[in-house]
Amino acid sequence: MDNLVDLSNATLGDLDIARPTYDRSALTPGIVHVGVGNFHRAHQAWYLHRLMQNGQAHDWAILGAGVRPYDAAMREKLLAQDCLTTLIELDPAQTSAEVVGSMIDYLPIEEGNGALIRAMADPAIRIVGLTVTESGYYIDPVSKRFDAAHADIVHDAANPDTPRTAFGAIVAALRLRRDAGQGPFTGLSCDNLQGNGDILRQAVVSLARMSDPALADWIEANASFPNSMVDCIAPATGPAEIAQAREFGVNDAAPVTHEAFRQWVIEDDFCAGRPDWDQVGATFSDDVHAYEKMKIRILNAGHQVLANVGEVLGIETISATMAHPAIRAMFHRVQAEEITQTVAPVPGMTPLAYLELIEQRFSNPRIVDTTRRVAFDGSARHTGFVLPILRDQLAAGRSVSGLALVEALWARMCAGTREDGSEIVANDPIWEALKEAAQAARTRPEAWLAQDRLYGDLAQAEAFRDAFVAWLSLIWDEGAVAAMNAYTQVDESNGRASKAS
């Protein structure tokens, strides 16, 4: 494009798209957010930006932060453009763009996290938000308890002033605030975990108790950790997304594409105040669990239903899996007959109506959300999203055939090859262990279920075990499509398909 504008504060007036109308130089920080990925910038940062556009919340600006060396690359990109981000909304009918300016700085990424600790210790910071992925909370996947034996946690407990983790940095900052006679901040998890605020509280308090029990008591008595439910599909950024920003005349090194849908439901439990996010579309509710259960089970578990078989069949995007007749039929049946059976309605939305909405969103071909991205960290996502549904179905004596097929397709993916023979490269923190179990399960399916850290006592649940064994055997013998067709056909009265039903 001829009139390409390098994104910065100085060039905002040269843009032909929506941009901040507030004076960014007058903004002051009120939030530190750890994990400044695409989702955060398309979601929480956008809600705050909308408030700022309305003349509010100018003392709640965001300081971005990270605790891993790889966060430095994003920091460099965003600082070079004054922490501005171009958001590109990909509605099926049209594309629009706007520049969001609610983040004003990005803290240094450094060993010991000193800059992060100092920033959070400032009493001007009243909320510390996190988007650090489901596996980033140091939870044992079976017991759901804090993993105090993890090497990072052991280090932080022994070196509380120079921690490795975000939670260690939070504990260190809260210690400084307590010692200075200041109140705590609110810890606000924005990750896809049911009870994410409770899980964040567990991580922070448990870690504090390992080095300073009195501090743990103070945090428990004074800090707040509201649960929240977040929803907006924001795919990873690559050359195509950067090119889309350029089509709008913006040279942005880190633009974000997203769907034309957002939802944020939050418990109104903030110990040091909060922005009025409800004035720009967020919902404050005393029953976040009902909303998050619907979303996590139908959307997040639904993503795993699609992504694993998509990888096995070499289908690159979520929308393309929804265009595959066998996958779409399998997805709809396991959702309608098993997943939605464990979900209660919320105000204005039934589970089946939400399923219809999700099917529409997942089918949007303009959202280039890769199966590889969605399949990442399956060891956390299956244990967090899929297996709780399976347990509820078993407890109620209802069908688990479809869920067993979903697990069998994940096991097939983790064998590390697609049906066309191409390699599926490592895509999980425990990939080598998963791959070893998956390859053993090719001839002995029970080997996959023997992974106690994932399945625990589910391996002894006869209805699940027998269905899983039958489905995985069929997948290896005849292929994933044959297994899905066997599951969705009306008559499953013969062959191995009947054993899995």
Automatic annotation (TrEMBL):
The keyword Cytoplasm does not apply. It comes from the Bacteria. Residues 287-471 form the Mannitol dehydrogenase C-terminal domain. The keyword Oxidoreductase applies. Residues 30-278 form the Mannitol dehydrogenase N-terminal domain. Its EC number is 1.1.1.67. InterPro entries: 6-PGluconate_DH-like_C_sf, 6PGD_dom2, Mannitol_DH, Mannitol_DH/Oxidoreductase, Mannitol_DH_C, Mannitol_DH_N, NAD(P)-bd_dom_sf. This is Mannitol 2-dehydrogenase.
